[in-house]
């Protein structure tokens, strides 16, 4: 069996492979170091842009299974990619812990006014009188109660938050006080304090956080996006933040990355922007490799693979 592996991971993966395995390596620009025409398996890595993916799958006509380390695969499911009958698996579950920790950090930063306090320290200015909040009894709505949403709930619950989740198929979940389905979350917006968006970007979720949603939120609500930039209508968000419809927003992802220097988002006082790093952790690489090796064993044994993406649903 022949595999296409990212050049940066070969040394870590090769010791776990069967002795009859052949390897073709690929660099960050999609350049292959050998013949991939009979390769069955491709393990891509982060920052693999669509043109690079297209280049690789074109060079591998026998490709049957592609494993991507990302949880979100909207950038992979292009018309060109979907023309091929390739099993796609993703990195769901690998990133949940660091993203959940960032979500809690965003919530605490807002509740305890940490950005303002950091600024005062830099100015050597002693000031009190902030409207600092407790998290106890506040309501957190997690739109997208999948793996990442559940990790967020597990870390939020000890703070005493009331946690509501939303998912396509609602069910009772640990650490959630309530889980709703469909668009039921919209009716809950007037009563929330914090909203975390943890959904994949699909045709159904593209800009689904629009003006109508933002106007339903109370003025004290704080919005957090650790999903994809495309789930929010940025023009509506800028209007909401400028006119004070909501208290603020934490954005780890935006429509155009890197965020252009001329974007008005940079200058809004009630926004916390991080450069799409909430999933960063030194443990991600090892977790990704462990998942891939486990799936490779399943693939060779003809067993069901973990994290198979429903291409029609988009996740």
From TrEMBL:
EC number(s) recorded for this UniProt protein: 1.1.1.95
UniProt keyword Ribosomal protein, yes or no: no
Kinase is among the record's keywords: no
Keywords linked to the UniProt accession: NAD, Oxidoreductase
InterPro entries assigned to the protein according to its UniProt record, in alphabetical order: D-isomer_DH_NAD-bd, NAD(P)-bd_dom_sf
Highest taxon, organism lineage: Bacteria
One Pfam family cited in the UniProt record for this chain: 2-Hacid_dh_C
D-isomer specific 2-hydroxyacid dehydrogenase NAD-binding domain mapped to chain residues: 104-278
Top EC class of this enzyme: oxidoreductase
Coiled coil: none
GO molecular function: NAD binding; phosphoglycerate dehydrogenase activity
PANTHER family, per the entry: 2-HACID_DH_C DOMAIN-CONTAINING PROTEIN, D-ISOMER SPECIFIC 2-HYDROXYACID DEHYDROGENASE NAD-BINDING DOMAIN-CONTAINING PROTEIN
Protein name as annotated: D-isomer specific 2-hydroxyacid dehydrogenase, NAD-binding
Native organism: Nostoc punctiforme (strain ATCC 29133 / PCC 73102)
Phylogenetic classification of the source organism: Bacteria, Bacillati, Cyanobacteriota, Cyanophyceae, Nostocales
């Amino acid at each position: 069996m022949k595999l296409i592996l990212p050049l940066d991971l070969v040394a870590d993966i090769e010791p776990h492979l069967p002795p009859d395995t052949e390897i073709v390596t690929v660099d960050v620009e999609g350049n292959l170091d050998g013949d991939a025409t009979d390769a069955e398996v491709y393990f891509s890595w982060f920052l693999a842009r669509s043109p690079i993916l297209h280049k690789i799958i074109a060079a591998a006509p026998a490709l049957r299974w592609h494993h991507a380390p990302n949880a979100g695969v909207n950038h992979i499911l292009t018309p060109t990619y979907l023309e091929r009958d390739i099993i796609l698996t993703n990195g769901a579950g690998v990133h949940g812990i660091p993203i959940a920790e960032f979500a809690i950090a965003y919530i605490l930063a807002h509740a305890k006014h940490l950005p303002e306090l950091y600024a005062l320290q830099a100015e050597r200015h002693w000031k009190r009188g902030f409207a600092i909040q407790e998290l106890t009894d506040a309501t957190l709505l997690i739109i997208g109660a999948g793996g990442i949403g559940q990790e967020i709930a597990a870390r939020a619950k000890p703070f005493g938050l009331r946690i509501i989740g939303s998912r396509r198929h609602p069910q009772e979940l640990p650490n959630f006080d309530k889980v709703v389905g469909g668009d039921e979350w919209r009716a809950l917006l007037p009563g929330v304090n914090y909203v975390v968006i943890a959904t994949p970007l699909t045709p159904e979720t593209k800009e689904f956080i629009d003006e109508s949603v933002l106007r339903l939120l109370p003025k004290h609500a704080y919005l957090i996006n650790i999903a994809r930039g495309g789930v929010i209508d940025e023009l509506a968000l800028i209007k909401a933040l400028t006119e004070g419809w909501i208290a603020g927003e934490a954005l780890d992802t935006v429509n155009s990355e890197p965020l252009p220097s001329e974007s008005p988002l940079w200058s809004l006082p009630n926004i916390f922007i991080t450069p799409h790093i909430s999933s960063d952790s030194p443990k991600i690489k090892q977790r990704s490799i462990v998942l891939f090796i486990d799936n490779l064993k399943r693939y060779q044994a003809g067993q069901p693979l973990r994290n198979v993406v429903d291409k029609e649903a988009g996740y």
